[in-house]
Amino acid sequence: MKISELSPNVVWKQFEEILKVPRPSKHEEKMVEFLVNFANEHNLKYTVDETQNVIIKKSATKGYENKPSVALQAHMDMVCDKTADKIHDFLTDPITPIVDGEWVKADRTTLGADDGIGVAAMLAILASDDIEHGPIECLFTRDEETGLTGAHGLGKGLLNSKILLNLDSEDDGLIFIGCAGGMDTVGTMKVSYKKPVGIGSYKAYKLVLTGLLGGHSGDDINKGRGNANKLLVRFIADYAQKYTIQLADFSGGNLRNAIAHDATAIVRIKTRDVSNFEKMVKDYDAIYKNELSLTDAGVSLICCDTYMPEKVLSGKDFNRFINLIYGMPHGVLGMSFKLKGIVETSTNLASIKFIDDKIEVVTSQRSDSESLKFFAANMVAHCFELVGAEYEHSDGYPGWTPNPDSPILKTAAQVYKDLFNQEPICCSIHAGLECGLFLEKYPDMDMISYGPTLRGVHTPDEKIEISTVDKFWKMTLEILKRV
Questions:
Q1: What are the phi and psi torsion angles at 283 (to 5°)?
Q2: What is the bridge-based pairing of β-strands 343-355 and 463-465?
Q3: Least CB-packed of 14, 277, 339, 346 within 10 Å?
Q4: Is 349 found in the same domain as 226?
Q5: How far is Cα 151 from Cα 376, in angstroms, rounded to an integer?
Q6: Could you say which of 393, 423, 449 is where a domain stops?
Q7: pTM (2 d.p.)
Q8: Alpha-carbon span 326 to 217, nearest angstrom
Q9: Tens digit of pLDDT for each residue in 219-260?
Q10: What is the CATH number of the domain that holds 247?
């Protein structure tokens, strides 16, 4: 089945078109062009601001001219990740969707339903001639995933609406009225290498830690999933306590806002210790399978023969690296006492890369509390300082303070109850949304965030539940009628 045959097909057809347009974060040029062409084809007024956000406006339908203006918002970029066996260039290749039972997923890549489905719904409304609504403004922001660049750069006075519907949430039945603030802390450690000696008495191996679910560093950080960087360094460090091991290369994780789901390392070990090394790999594979049986049942640690490296880390820098990563915090640092079951503060050890004479370590921190956000970031910074590494904090983004008395929240909650005979849950999310930045520019804006159900976001397992897209669409149309 083609996704354009799914219901509501006006949304799925737009989503199908979006999947043909490459739109990695920071490379949204083709998507901007697509949106501008769309506006021209439908005779709609549009603005492309200095940051390359696109705003398309549509007049009210007959009889709704006196309704208040509503802004609909989604980000145009997508997280780009794929499985190791998939050949795909996100700068040029379209995403291949697959209908899999009750879900739509992609062929071994991220799907981009985050937030392509929000974009698709907005385009379907803009293209329609039979949907009842007041004046609407559709804001398509760029580079949400790697810096919220579009939201940061959005100018004052570009939007006239006092109400905003953010279509970038991932759970049907939940209406979000708040989110965590976040920032990145990136460390760079200068290292020296040495030329290996005793070639005949050493053997080289490639270590591969894979099979983890990974996931969104906000939504999934409290689900107990393993971090490939931590697990692989743990093995190397524990082996080094008993035997000689040298490290030539290490690569783990790809994205600052995703939990690392795989990692690899090139190591040298003494030939006399080969049997001990291979046995210990099997032992730790079993340990990880046992520890993560309920969260990452597919975890796997294996080793295979590889080329003899031309250089390895000096002994001093090997110890610095191991101490840094072994001691680096990762995961939930505190739960909220204000909102039951919600993570308050967390940190994610996102990626590790060996680049020439430097090791780059990317981390990200989130918190509902600005002070605790900086506390978490400084905790990570002190780890870098302990091993003599340099670090930088990003500017970050503010949280969005919940407003339980929001008028648009009351309207949306009543709509959901009337349509589906079920009370929605109103809550805050530990992931970052652009709403906090919008409030800095438009402090009188009343806003909510909602969307259909997505799972595996920011990973090649990303998928969207088909039935919830129909609910999401009906809810949006009814909100526009009642607002």
A1: -65, -45
A2: unpaired
A3: 339
A4: yes
A5: 24
A6: 393
A7: 0.78
A8: 19
A9: 899 999 999 999 999 999 999 999 999 999 999 998 888 999
A10: 3.30.70.360
